[in-house]
Amino acid sequence: MTIQTSYVAKTLLQSRPRPESMREKLLSGRKITGYVLLAIWAVFFLSIAVFLYVSYDPDYMSRYRPKYLYGFLTTIELVAMSVALGGILSLPIAFGRMSKIKLFNRMAFGYIYFFRGTPLLAQLFLLYYGFGQFRHFWQDINMWWLFRDSWSIALLSFTLNTAAYQAEILRGAIMNVPKGQIEGAQSLGLPKFVTFFKIILPQALIVALRPYGNEFILMIKGSAVVSIISVYDLMGETRRAFSQTYDFQAYIYAAIFYLICVEILRRLWDLIEQRLTRHLRRDNG
Hints:
α7 (about 150-175) crosses α9 and α11 (about 235-245) packs antiparallel against α12. This protein has helices at about 1-15, 20-55, 60-100, 100-115, 120-130, 135-140, 150-175, 180-185, 190-205, 210-220, 235-245, 250-275. The model has no long low-confidence stretch (mean pLDDT about 80). It is built from twelve helices and no strands. The longest helix has about 40 residues, at about 60-100. The protein is mainly α.
């Protein structure tokens, strides 16, 4: 019986391909294609760097560098405020989405469905051109301050949009918390308010940390649309610089600013995630 078992094991091992042959097979196919594509991208970015170095204009940079920085700070301010306000607004929306009361559930579902199903640009135009036509109505109820300038409308539009996405992120994270945590809190006689904010929400935020980072990055890249309604963010300053110089380097510099911002945010989010999830990692030592 032992001899037969060893023979079967030896036969199975011989029929399996060697690791070296598998590596050679992969190297001849997908890896070569990947290396070629990587080389093309490297040549592309290198050519852009060489072009910027050769065509560097000190006068252009001294004139438009402060405007780029101002637009960059405007973008960060707009996105940070809208994400923070959207996070606050997403709490009741997520509660409504999880509510067993049909009215609240359907209202939250309709809100999320609309703002996730329509383009951000369409929502921005709806608020800027649509609501602005009812000036006398907003003045009568003392709400015209919210629709009278482009900045307020951009902030409102971004807040409503990101609240829908954050509500779905939060809802999925809350549903991912094990039910045993809730049952344990109930067995201890903890109030529902304490159970949610002390037990459920902290665990849900850890689960939702990475999706929140992705939403932040998407909002930064999507914020370029506000330049259409005369908000001079990074893209707005870029469009103004291009209209004055007709130099397409303006858009290259804007792309570099966006890349730097996204990379800094990505690394910062990695540090935050490592810090908050350090208790979940096993000590390899």
